[in-house]
Amino acid sequence: xxxxxxxxxxxxxxxxxxxxxxNGGAQVKWRDDRIECRMIDxxxxxxxxxxxxxxxxxxxxxxxxxxxxxxxxGWLDARRVARALRFTDVFRDDDDGIxxxxxxxxxxxxxxxxxxxxxxxxxxxxLTAWRDERYAVGAPFGAPPxxxxxxxxxxxxxxxxxxxxxxxxxxANDTIEMWFARRSPAKAIDPGLLDNLVGGxxxxxxxxxxxAVKEAWxxxxxxxxxxxxxTPAGAVHVCRVQSDGLHRETIFVHDLILPAAFRPACRDGExxxxxxxxxxxxxxxxxxxxxxxxxxxxxxxxxxxxxxxxGAIPATSPDFAALAALRGPSDPVWx
Length: 335
What we know:
Layout: H1 10-13, E1 17-19, E2 27-31, E3 34-38, H2 42-55, E4 64-68, E5 71-76, H3 78-84, E6 91-94, E7 97-100, H4 107-123, E8 134-137, E9 147-150, H5 154-157, E10 160-172, E11 175-183, E12 194-196, E13 198-201, H6 208-220, H7 224-227, E14 231-242, E15 245-258, E16 271-278, H8 279-287, H9 297-309, H10 320-325
Parallel strand pairs: 1-3, 4-7, 10-15
Antiparallel strand pairs: 2-3, 4-5, 6-7, 8-9, 10-11, 10-13, 11-12, 11-16, 14-15
């Protein structure tokens, strides 16, 4: 199944001019309302490709579909299918996958049943930390949901989730720099790793814009009126197997220009540090697979998208097409 990706190429919209520096580093300069991007070293670009090609590799092995109303709601491995079918009042065998039992034919009934399932799985230690927040699951995004599901169970069942991330960009010293946040070591997923300045899942009943504004305040102390000026820049897609299940997510990307004097202040305890760096450093960080400054895979994809859109990795690069393709999976489990 082909995946339709939406990426706004702001090199044209912002009048970006690309120039190669002799030392091969990356520098971005502002000229009035235009951005001049100088290209990132080819060796770093190749390292980014190697790291993210590995980390974003399509799922291997057999995954079984969870079907509802003729559509696929999720994907599970054999072990999780077997466990799900033990909830005989919730799931039934559906040829090569699973489905709800016929009695669960309303959103409310399905949601209540899945709440019981998720709490049982959590008590068994099969889920990550309980979030007490639900995702709406349906197709397409924004349509009436088939059901709602506790966030901690999303990967277990391989449902498609949605998130809003924001690149915090700053005009400073005739260049542009990017803010990163370091995740709390207490986080259930990717503890201690570097992350986008702002990012969060879109909970049931919320929207892309509302999530971006909410997370901007909670994670970085960005006032709502400033956060609302973030520019939507398309979407990137993640589909990869993790220890807790299938991470299958669409991330709506934004660019936000912040004042040079702005200093992030986390309000919810999810970030413990913030660092502002140039594009060259950002590129080096997302190339790291290990070490002190490793960026989460999904945040690395968002940063890569930013570098591609702003011309820091030019279309003439031998790695450009492969890197651009990483922004959206083509594996059939995407559905």
